[in-house]
Amino acid sequence: MTNIPATIGAETREFLASKTVEAFEFLYDLMNDETASVSERIRAAEWLLEAAYGKSKVIDPDKVNARLRAANTILLATQAKANKEARAREFLISNIANLAAEENGAGKSE
Question: Which end of the chain is more exposed for a tag (fewer CB within 10 A), N or C?
Answer without folding.
Answer: C
